[in-house]
From TrEMBL:
Keywords: ATP-binding, Hydrolase, Nucleotide-binding
Molecular function via GO: hydrolase activity
Protein name per UniProt: Allophanate hydrolase subunit 1
Organism: Streptomyces neyagawaensis
Cross-referenced InterPro entries: CT_C_D, Cyclophilin-like_dom_sf, PxpB
Claim: Oxidoreductase is one of the keywords in the record: no
Domain called Carboxyltransferase: residue spans: 1-189
Length: 203
C-alpha cells in the first residue's frame, strides 16, 4: 500500500489489485461511518482510492501502513437487476473466445453476481467485477456505442449509460436508465452495489 500526496488535503492510495482497492474502499467507508476517519470524498478506481478533504494527510499516510484491511464484507442491500437482451453484435466473438456457443455466453453471464468496483469513463458507468472469464477489448474501438449496451472487457462488465465511443465487446442491450439527473441519486450503480443481469426476450 502506497500513499501519495495530492495537493494540500488529499491522498491517493495505491494497492496491487482491484480486490485490494475494493477492500480498502469498504474499510475507509466503515471507518468514516464509525467516526474514525474525517474525509470528505472517497473515490475508488481500478487499483487506487482517492481521499479528498483531509485535515492532516501526512499523518494519515503514516497510519495507513499499519491498518489491517479485511476482505470486502458481504452487502445486505437488494441486488439491482438489469434486464438484458443478449443480442449484441460481439456475442459471437465472445463465444468463440470462450469456446462455447452464444447461448452459453448468455447463461454464464446471467448466472454471475456482479459488484460495482468503481465508476468512471462516463456519468453512471460502473465497472462491475464478477465476470467468470476474461474477454479482450476489441482491436478497433467503435466511434459510437448505443446507450444501454451491455459490454465486456478484461475482467469487467459495464453498461453504457449513453451513446459514446468504446472498445468493449457488446453482448446485449438493456432499456434500464443508468443515469438520470432527475433521480436521487442520479446514478443507478454506485461502488459496492450488487448487480445481476436477467435475460429477457427480444421484442
Amino acid at each position: 500500500m502506497r500513499a501519495l500526496p495530492v495537493g494540500d488535503r488529499a491522498l491517493l492510495i495505491e494497492v496491487d489489485s482491484g480486490q485490494e482497492a475494493e477492500a480498502l474502499h469498504a474499510e475507509l467507508l466503515r471507518r468514516r461511518a464509525a467516526g474514525e476517519l474525517a474525509v470528505e470524498e472517497l473515490v475508488p478506481a481500478a487499483r487506487t482510492v482517492l481521499l479528498d478533504g483531509l485535515d492532516a494527510p501526512s499523518r494519515l499516510a503514516e497510519r495507513l501502513t499499519s491498518w489491517e484491511v479485511p476482505p470486502v464484507p458481504p452487502r445486505t442491500e437488494d441486488v439491482v437487476e438489469i434486464p438484458v437482451r443478449y443480442d449484441g453484435p460481439d456475442l459471437g466473438d465472445v463465444a468463440a473466445h470462450w469456446g462455447v456457443d452464444e447461448a452459453e455466453v448468455a447463461r454464464i453471464h446471467a448466472a454471475a453476481e456482479f459488484r460495482v468496483a468503481f465508476c468512471g469513463f462516463a456519468p453512471g458507468f460502473g465497472y462491475l467485477t464478477g465476470l467468470p472469464r476474461e474477454v479482450p477489448r476489441r482491436a478497433t474501438p467503435r466511434t459510437a456505442v448505443p446507450a444501454g449496451s451491455v459490454a465486456l472487457a478484461g475482467p469487467y462488465t459495464g453498461v453504457y449509460p449513453r451513446s459514446s465511443p468504446g472498445g468493449w465487446q457488446l453482448i446485449g442491450t438493456t432499456d434500464l436508465v443508468l443515469w438520470d439527473p432527475a433521480r436521487v441519486p442520479a446514478a443507478l450503480l454506485t461502488p459496492g452495489t450488487r448487480v445481476r443481469f436477467t435475460p429477457v426476450a427480444a421484442p
